[in-house]
Design brief:
Layout (H helix, E strand, L loop, with lengths): L2 H27 L4 H38 L1 H21 L3 H21 L3 E3 L6 H9 L9 E7 L8 H15 L3 E9 L6 H12 L3 E7 L10 E8 L2 E10 L10 E4 L2 H15 L2 E3 H4 L13
Parallel strand pairs: 2-3, 3-4
Antiparallel strand pairs: 1-7, 2-5, 4-8, 5-6, 6-7
Helix pairs in contact: 1-2, 5-6
Length: 300
Amino acid sequence: MTSRQGTYILTGISLSLGIVITIISSFVSGALTNETIIMGLLTTLISLAFTLVIAIKEYQEQVSVAVALTQHASLREHIESIVERYDKTLSNYGSHELFIRRVNEVIASCADQIASASTGELKTSPEREEGESLYALLNAVQPGDGTEIHAVSIYDNWWWNTPLGVKYLDRNYELTDKKITICRIFVIPTAHLTSDTVKEVIKRQCERGIRVLIAEDKGDLGNLAHGYLIIAYHRGGAKIVSLAARSEARRADERRSIVLLVNKRKVEELEDEFDRLKLHTVTATEVFPDLQMCAPCTDK
């Protein structure tokens, strides 16, 4: 039911209620007196006034939408295109119930995404590579004094050797070359903690200036064991945590979607998680004594 349909129904109920009250009052009093007529009219007027308020609110919402579409040309173009093509879809394929239901699900999903974005949180598609979203986030970094990147990587050695992993890591190196501090915590299961593959991944990153800590995952880290990336800036001596990306995967073999965060409270909560996870870490040289080039995070 649309809000307009609801308004029409409410109007009908209001008029009917006034008539019913008038009839009941006249039945009780035994006659249709001036008092019963006035009572019925007052009830109807009050109900109609309530309906008018709802109608005005609906009109204001429509005006607000129209103004927004006027101010945002790209949004207007997208909506006009969606409406036009949706109408064409119904005209050509409306008899295919399953197909149309799926189309409606896509539209509903888009609406949900926009609703989520209005809270400062946006989830990428599970089909989209995790590294692609993280790479885009790194491109948003503004080099400057005090810029920091805090990252958590769950055990996933093969990914660093994929084309996307190499591209992502190269972007890390570009930032460290610009004196941007990157502190990465590797969350590694006990069974793989001292493996040569883990050592090689960590060594490559340490050699390029990435600060490394290691958290041994004994199954006791709970919600702290998931991947994310936080970008923080320092302004006037104070740290400003500005944006982040959180992976929904808890294991390396899970399909990954990334949640981009710009909501200040949510980003700060993620930064708090990072600080708590650091309490469970050791330096890279404590696990691999020969990796002397590995510098820990400055406040570890």
